[in-house]
Amino acid sequence: MPQHTHSSLTHVLLLWITTLSVVQLGFIVFFFTAGRSQNSSDVARQHTKAKIQANNTSSYPSEPGIPLGGGKMLTFRATEVNRKITWVARSPDERLISGIEGGKVLKIKKDGYYFLTLQVTLNSCLAKASWHTVSLKAKDKDLLKGWINNNTCSTGSLSKVEELPAGSTLEVTVNKTAPDETINQKESHLDIIYIFKPWK
Q1: CA 151 – CA 171 distance, rounded (Å)
Q2: Which residues contact 157 (CB under 8 A, 6 or more apart)?
Q3: pLDDT tens string 64-110
Q4: Separation of alpha carbons 177 and 128, rounded Å
Q5: Both ends of the chain: CA-CA distance in Å?
Q6: Taking Cα atoms as reference points, which of 116, 109, 111 lies closest to residue 137?
Q7: Confidence class of residue 39 from pLDDT cuts 50, 70 and 90?
Q8: Residue 56: what pLDDT?
Q9: 101-105 own/partner pairs: CB under 8 Å, 24+ apart
Q10: CB count in 10 Å sphere of residue 12
């Protein structure tokens, strides 16, 4: 009699283990197939979203040679004529910025965001006790203003992002107290990055 009980318990235990194994296998299969279908639906959703964004982006006007969201860098080096700074373009683009008044003033041709970086360096700082001020103005507004350090004879880099409309003008003025102080043309520059502004 104990032999028969032992045998039936073994059958029950085997049946229980088999049931658990089948259920566990079912969960594993469900987990991996559900994850795969969810991933594929996420990919499909992302693909659809990218298509919609591309369609919306294509409705914005584009600038020839300037990708949407991109920019274009223009570099000007400083020369000095009769104690006035004249800017000469290293990478000219007359569609964006042009020099007027012999290069003393730069005229903005397109609405947009402009990242401005200015550095003015003198060959020597003769008037050690005085302050040399440098400012980049648009009309009467100072966009960048700094002082020339008497130890380095330079402003270092002065930078700012500004939204400027077409027709704005940029002019740099340097307050030098000694007539013999001259601009270091290699170390003085104005870098402007134009960033296209899409219509609203």
Answers
A1: 26
A2: 117, 118, 119
A3: 556 555 678 889 999 876 667 889 988 788 888 988 888 889 999 98
A4: 10
A5: 91
A6: 116
A7: low
A8: 45
A9: 103/79, 104/171, 105/169, 105/170, 105/171
A10: 10
Q: How far apart are CA 134 and CA 129, in angstroms?
A: 16
CA atoms within 13 A on the CB side of 101: 12
Strands (E) located in the chain? 71-81, 84-89, 97-100, 105-108, 112-119, 132-138, 141-148, 158-164, 169-174, 189-195
The DSSP annotation for 19-34 comes to HHHHHHHHHHHHHHHH
Distance (Å) of CA 120 to CA 12, 85, 135 = 92, 10, 10
C-alpha–C-alpha distance, residues 61 and 82, integer Å: 43
Adjacent-strand bridge partners of 142: 137
Q: Is the pLDDT of residue 59 over 50?
A: no
The pair of structure tokens assigned to 75 is 């570099």
Q: Structure tokens of 137?
A: 């103005």
Q: Is the pLDDT of residue 111 over 80?
A: yes
